[in-house]
Amino acid sequence: MRAMKKGLMTVLGVALVGSQLVACSNTSDQNKPAATQDAQKPAATQAAAKPVEITWWNFPNFQTLDGEVGKYEKQIIAAFNEKHPEIKVNLEMITFDGGPQKLNVAISSNTAPDVIYDAPGRIIDWGKKKLLAPLNDIIPADIKNDIAPAFWKQSTVGDQIVMYPLNTGPFMMAVNKTVFEKIGALDLLPLSRPDRTWTVAEYEKALNAVKEKAPEIIPTGFFAKSTAGDQGTRAYLANLGVSRFLTEDNSKVAINTENAGKALDWVVKATKDKISVAGAASLAAADVNDLFLQGKLAFTLNYSPVLKAQNVANKKVQFDDVLLPFPTLDGSKPKLEPFLGGLAIFNNGNADKIAASKKFIDFVVNDPVWGKKNIIQTGGLSARTSITGLYNDPEYKYADLARQFITDPPTIADGYAEIRTFWFPELQRALTGGATGKEALDAFAAKANDAIAKAKAQNQK
């Protein structure tokens, strides 16, 4: 525990892009993890078990019921207690704005929750600091083989699984289809193509059509105020410039190419030409998405099936929001980062709490009734390859198809928590005229590469 406490005192926080849930299917009792088999025993059998109390901290990953934050989560706990009345689960809802810092404080003061539902950006960092309990023993072979290797890379540190993958989906752009219908320019969108891929030239033509025919609408957005939503900007620039953010082995930065530099220059010029939002250096991802939900923005950069579902209640005007991949310079296939939500357990030194937490996680993910129900409540796709067709919606069918474009995200890189803090300051420099696109990306690469090297050396100790 000394090493554990030392690790807890040194954790650094990072911002999150919101993340999500879940995977499930019926499996034979022989292949199910022990927690699942225990959960299926009658409540009377479980009543004699040793009472345990655990704490679950959750970001608002599920859509609310009746507008009440946490109401759905309480229903999960009630259903879990029908099978495990001996385990009391204390729920605490945290926000995407203040939650990360609250977690940092809890970890540094040795008061971390038992269970957290989060994303790889933080969870892998905690795992590398040996703050989490391994989950290998509750994931049977049939489930492990049903989840793509790319997702396991985001859930594993060494040979230890530290996050149970739950729900997923590709991060993409979204377009206000209603705007293009009103201006008679729907043919400028790649919606007639099954994979919806398109070029930067086609994208620019669509932006200029909005500027000309709907001057009250901002054609597209960009943002550089904070780390939240950074996957939107890095994927945008990487695809516009037909580049990668990091090398395939995540050992160094790859986005400081000539083409990516020109892509950032294009964003700066687009702002001056009034086809991209003004003041991007002082806008956050949430600000840009709010403009989109107000019907004031034709394209937004940081979207996903989950956000599409969650935003139904947040639209200020009614319009049809449609998912699109990022355009590429030459029309090649885009590279989309996946969001991935999952559950992890902090190793707080209590074996009974860890065992109880594993039973709770297993219920959330694999219960025959609540597993799929939980996925749908997040608006995401299942992390399990075999679980599809959860929604009768063409946009979800497209999101399933767009899985083919998913690439490894940089969240698993050594030093990711520090890497992302260097990204937006350099974007701001370019947007405010302090550097060319290439100069800004080179400066970012120098700082990020140093952070990667230092973190890798530290993690190897």
Automatic annotation (TrEMBL):
Cross-referenced SUPFAM superfamilies: Periplasmic binding protein-like II (SSF53850)
InterPro entries per the UniProt record, alphabetical: Bact_solute-bd_prot1, SBP
Pfam families (UniProt xref): SBP_bac_1
Signal peptide, first to last residue: 1-23
Protein name: ABC transporter substrate-binding protein
Coiled coil: none
PANTHER family for this protein: ARABINOSE-BINDING PROTEIN-RELATED (PTHR43649), POLYGALACTURONAN_RHAMNOGALACTURONAN-BINDING PROTEIN YTCQ (PTHR43649:SF33)
Keywords: Cell membrane, Lipoprotein, Membrane, Palmitate, Signal
